[in-house]
Design brief:
Layout: H1 5-14, H2 17-21, E1 38-41, E2 53-56, E3 61-64, E4 70-71, H3 73-80, H4 85-96, H5 105-133, H6 138-146, H7 151-156, E5 160-162, H8 168-175, H9 180-185, E6 189-192, E7 195-200, E8 205-211, E9 217-224, E10 233-235, H10 251-257, E11 265-266, H11 270-278, E12 284-285, H12 294-303, E13 308-311, H13 315-328, E14 339-342, H14 349-356, H15 358-366, E15 369-370, H16 371-380, H17 388-403, H18 408-438, H19 465-469, H20 482-493, H21 496-500, H22 502-506, H23 513-527, H24 534-543, H25 547-559, H26 571-604, H27 608-631
Parallel strand pairs: 11-12, 11-13, 13-14
Antiparallel strand pairs: 1-2, 2-3, 3-4, 5-8, 6-7, 8-9, 9-10, 14-15
Length: 644
């Protein structure tokens, strides 16, 4: 019902907010000043060890500097205790000793209707639970057993079974005196002008009751058992009780679990939530079969300042992570962001904990990336930034992303972070050009002791230290470069690429002698018409005595996380990775030869023109090296080693 503003103000003024909150928290003695009505405590909305939750009687407000929740008397009761707004008002009025105003008859009728509908939903829940344990639920019980869910877990989440019948639930509720209109209002049957006789919404499905923030059942999700069902998962329709985009599955239980500490984890489905809860992760929620919505993200932020968004390890999961990142970006601010946990390829949380145990999922969470990392990964993964125009386009894209952030301070720091990341890739080229600006021509002869050049005029001007260590410059090094290993491993694991790139493969120029031996084995397999079969190519490698080299190359690829070159990758992904690596390889080998020629020219004639030419080649080296760093683990700016 709607209450007069004057009435709400009166009861708020009569009851100090500390009296309401003090029933649920213990005030911190050191920081609290009761005489001034200034109180501090550990936040009841999220687990913490030091008090960051503050309330002030004078203002009648509370705020947590850890998770950013804030509000007044009524919001505290509705958010924490799960009361409806009228219930919260009634409780404060009772504390204030003020009688409640006369309730609006129409609103009171709607409140009673909602309460009646939750009673019907509870009856339906019990019906589904009983059917799961009865004879007709044998197939459903077998499915849940195969999925590894214990009877205790099934009971805890109140799982059930909807019989393969058009009217089993409808007749059960009608026999208990539930009106037809209530059954329809709960979304338990399909009905309408074009449906002469209504019939059960859920049939032959495992049932997942969906509670609201108070734990009352407001909807259901159903998992089909028939393999030819039109939809594997389906939810209740929107009703007076249920609006799918505003609800998170397992919200009430997860919020309660957060009192023990940690953050909330959002996964993609019912089974993931339940499997993780059984494995000891109780602070897990899920959207209801759709992409995360803005309202659901707001619910996550009410629970924790930095929720963990966990997505399946496939292309669809990665796209879902990117959508969530775009949605969260405008609203991030101090104490309000998100981290992204990306599962191994082809795995979901249920698969992972079943196959490898809870520690495997903890490792995924420990490796979660902040929002800024995910955005950087998306904009740079697979990109080739070998021209000024492409680098400018990357910078423009990152600036546009940062500009979406509404909070001014956070937007500034994102812009600064993105600038620094770009500079870490491309700023070294500017350093090389600075060397050209510092040098004045005609000041002496350049020499090249130890691989370095003496800048005409005295000071040493070498290829930069990072360039000197690069695989692009080193010749005859026995250490494999990730780039060359990517080419060879991708060709062996995906032999179809050999024919597609025959002209490049046949005359491939490799610096590493071991990889050259693998290359020779590939050519041998081609000569014997065996290059279209991976097993035949690997057998040729083994006959050539190169099995250990092959294992070492694959190990390097795995450590460098160049998964597109591995056998399990899709051919399209392997093709993209190979094309990138071949492009870099051709550029590197060509530049290597040009560098040697420029060295010789400068040695013979230390002129301004020859020195400028050398600097330009070095700058091109920096471009190729920066691009290679992007591919090999997204470079040093992410805090990870760029090379294996």
């Amino acid at each position: 019902m709607r209450f007069p503003p004057a009435f709400l103000d009166e009861i708020r003024d009569r009851v100090p907010i500390s009296s309401v909150i003090g029933q649920r928290v213990a005030w911190d003695r050191k920081k609290t000043n009761a005489s001034r009505g200034d109180y501090w405590a550990c936040c009841p909305f999220h687990g913490e060890k030091s008090p960051s939750f503050h309330c002030e009687d004078k203002k009648g407000r509370y705020h947590c500097f850890g998770c950013s929740v804030s509000g007044d008397h009524f919001k505290f009761l509705t958010e924490l205790e799960g009361l409806s707004f009228p219930e919260a008002v009634e409780k404060i009025a009772d504390m204030a000793g003020v009688p409640m105003p006369v309730r609006d008859a129409q609103e009171e009728r709607r409140e009673k209707e909602r309460a009646s509908l939750t009673d019907v939903m509870e009856m339906a829940t019990v019906f589904f639970q009983e059917r799961l344990q009865g004879p007709e639920g044998a197939k459903a019980r077998a499915y849940l057993r195969d999925r590894g869910l214990t009877p205790a877990t099934q009971q805890s989440f109140r799982l059930g079974f909807a019989p393969d019948s058009r009217n089993a639930l409808k007749e059960h509720l009608a026999a208990k005196g539930v009106p037809k209109a209530d059954i329809e209002a709960c979304g338990l049957v399909r009905h309408g002008d074009d449906i002469p006789v209504s019939y059960d919404w859920f049939r032959d499905r495992i049932m997942f009751p969906i509670p609201d923030s108070r734990g009352k059942i407001i909807a259901f999700g159903g998992r089909a058992l028939a393999p030819d069902a039109l939809a594997k998962y389906m939810n209740s329709p929107d009703t007076e009780l249920f609006h799918k985009s505003n609800v998170l599955y397992n919200f009430a239980r997860a919020r309660k679990a957060l009192a023990k500490g940690g953050t909330v984890i959002a996964v993609e489905g019912y089974m993931d939530v339940i499997a993780l809860a059984q494995a000891g992760f109780e602070n897990v929620v899920a959207p209801l079969g759709t992409a995360l919505t803005e309202n659901q993200l707001e619910l996550l932020w009410r629970m924790a300042p930095e929720p963990m968004l966990c997505f399946d390890g496939d292309k669809a999961g990665l796209k879902a992570a990117w959508r969530a990142a775009d949605m969260a970006l405008p609203s991030v601010q101090a104490g309000r962001s998100a981290r992204f946990a990306l599962l191994p390829e082809g795995k979901d949380p249920d698969d992972l904990v079943k196959a490898e145990g809870p520690d495997a999922f903890r490792a995924v969470l420990a490796d979660a990336r902040p929002l800024v990392d995910l955005l950087w990964m998306r904009e740079t993964a697979g990109g080739v930034f070998d021209t000024p125009e492409r680098r400018a386009e990357l910078g423009q894209t990152l600036r546009e992303l940062s500009s979406r952030i509404r909070d001014e301070s956070t937007r500034y720091h994102y812009q600064q972070e993105m600038r620094e990341r770009v500079q870490s890739f491309f700023g070294s080229q500017r350093n090389a050009r600075q060397g050209r600006q510092d040098w004045k021509p005609g000041q002496g002869k350049a020499t090249a002791p130890g691989g370095q050049f003496a800048k005409p005029g005295g000071g040493r001007m070498a290829i930069t230290e990072s360039l000197g260590q690069s695989a692009l410059v080193k010749r005859g090094s026995e250490g494999m470069s990730v780039r060359e290993a990517t080419i060879i491993v991708a060709l062996i694991n995906h032999p179809a690429l050999i024919d597609e790139n025959f002209a490049h493969v046949e005359f491939l120029d490799l610096a590493n002698s071991d990889l050259t031996r693998l290359h020779a084995a590939i050519l041998d397999a081609m000569a014997h018409d065996m290059a279209n079969d991976r097993h035949a190519v690997v057998a040729t490698i083994e006959r050539a005595g190169c099995a250990e080299i092959w294992e070492r190359a694959v190990g390097l690829i795995k450590r460098a996380r160049q998964w597109p070159a591995l056998e399990t990758a899709a051919l399209e992904d392997a093709r993209d990775a190979l094309n990138q690596a071949l492009h870099l390889q051709r550029s590197a080998r060509t530049l290597h030869k040009e560098l040697k020629q420029a060295e010789a020219a400068l040695e013979a004639d230390p002129s301004d023109e020859n020195f400028r030419h050398l600097i330009e080649i070095q700058a091109q080296f920096q471009d190729v090296q920066a691009t290679e760093a992007l591919i090999e683990g997204f470079g040093v700016s992410s805090g990870r080693a760029g090379r294996a």
